[in-house]
Amino acid sequence: MKIAVVGGTGLTGREVVRAVEAQGHQPVVIARSLGVDIITGDGLDAALRGVSAIIDVSNAPAEDAEAARQFFGTATGTLLAAATRAGVGHHVVLSIVGIDRVAGNPHYAGKLRQEEVALAGPVPATVVRATQFHDFAAMVVGWSASDGVAPIAPLLVQPIAVADVADALVAVALDTPVGGIVEVAGPKPEDLVDMARRTLGVRGQTVELAPSWQGRFTVEMAGEVLLPGPDARIAPTTFEQWLANDPANQPGAA
Q1: How far is CA 9 from CA 2, 6, 37, 62, 148, in A?
Q2: pTM score of the predicted model
Q3: Cβ atoms within 10 A of the Cβ of 64, count?
């Protein structure tokens, strides 16, 4: 079975390609660097020939909500048109848990538009909303750190391993389309500030953490806004296991 992975050269995409191969199927990587453009449609018809399912993990920087909606809406519409011509039977979109409960985040606005277009489109679809990845706290510190101090919001999240998300996406793609949303999450909730402190500790990095709601994550994300619902599929890899085993956390890592 051919499964197209849109954004297959990125961090998540590479894991999805691995998961497709591990299940004995043939991945087809869709990426602009490989001559396939999901905005203009260049190369899409040829790339989707013989494809049974699409897993879309594409991403784009978003500083403006309208620009994000425009990108994801256009890209998804172009992708669905090509998928219809190719006879693709299942369109799977990776999204984010809680984005429908947060109004002011530009990236979330774009992802909601992507969900809307996919679920209203001509190809049977499933949206897979995942919680934040295990390295999310370290990413936030990298974005916000200045002069040895990193403001960081005390978010409550239920982090998940990228490999577990990839496995879940492939399992969904191989199953019957839901025509709606499913959620996947890690085993248990964690506090983002504590996650950052522990990650910095195993990496031997010294950064002062300053809990704050003044950065890119506002108080509307407080409480259980970013946690999954009771029907979420729970992945096996804990944050502790990721801390102990991920190469980025080993002595000598960059």
Answers
A1: 17, 8, 13, 19, 32
A2: 0.95
A3: 12
What does the pLDDT look like over 79-99, one tens digit per residue? 999 999 999 999 999 999 999
Contact criterion met (CB below 8 Å) for 21 and 2? no
Q: What one-character-per-residue DSSP string does 203-215 give?
A: HT---EEEE-SSS
Q: Count Cβ atoms below 10 Å from residue 179 Cβ, excluding itself.
A: 10
For 217-246, b/e burial (b = at least 16 CB within 10 A) is beeebeeebbbbeeebbebebbbeebbeeb
Q: Closest by alpha carbon to 125, among 51, 72, 175, 73?
A: 175
Q: Which residues neighbour 77 within 8 Å (Cβ) at sequence distance 6 or greater?
A: 117, 121
Average pLDDT value for the chain: 95
Question: What are φ and ψ of residue 105, in 5° steps?
Answer: -100, 120
Q: Which two tokens stand for residue 226?
A: 């970013």
Three-class SS string for 28-79?
A: EEECHHHCCCCCCCCCHHHHCCCEEEEEECCCCCCCCHHHHHHHHHHHHHHH
Instruction: Return the closest-CA partner of residue 144 out of 83, 193, 95.
Output: 193
Looking at the predicted structure, is the pLDDT value of residue 213 above 60?
Answer: yes
- Determine the 3-state secondary structure of 152 from DSSP: strand
